[in-house]
Design goal:
With 138 residues, the protein is an alpha/beta fold. 46% of the residues lie in helices and 15% in strands. The chain has a single domain, classed as Rossmann fold, CATH 3.40.50. Helix 1 packs parallel to helix 4.
Length: 138
């Protein structure tokens, strides 16, 4: 696991925006584990054939990440991001929530740190990159 490995979680409807965020984080030097951003919408029958495989893939990517960053700016229609948040809490990941806490009590968990915007999150990753470089870490 690299120091700046990140799993991005969010609403499937926000894929386009989150792909741009992924690119920004990669340009900073982060390893972004979020293959779901490249998934395409499909019919329920098609999805049911791939759901188990995708859930396993996403879990492996979350495990491989040091940071878990969840976008709560837009509501999720599927709820997968909340399951991923629960896994990240249970795994002891460093969790940043971009946006504002919701009615979901786990957005208020003491392990979840509030970041007001993606611009601020990117700035924090830039700061961390500098610190890691000064410390001689990858």
């Amino acid at each position: 696991m690299t120091e700046l490995s990140v799993y991005i979680a969010g609403s499937f409807t926000q894929q386009r925006k989150l792909k741009t965020i992924r690119e920004t984080l990669q340009n900073i030097g982060c390893t972004v584990n979020a293959s779901w951003l490249d998934d395409v919408r499909m019919s329920p029958d098609e999805y049911s054939k791939l759901a188990r495989e995708r859930a396993d893939r996403d879990q492996r990517e979350l495990i491989a990440s040091r940071f878990f960053v969840i976008d709560v700016i837009e509501r999720s229609l599927t709820g997968a991001m909340w399951v991923e948040l629960g896994m990240a809490i249970a795994m002891g990941k460093i969790i940043w929530m971009v946006g504002y806490p919701s009615e979901n009590p786990f957005t208020w968990h003491p392990q979840v740190f509030q970041v007001n915007s993606w611009d601020r999150a990117a700035a924090k990753f830039r700061e961390l990159k500098t610190v890691y470089e000064l410390a001689g870490k990858p």
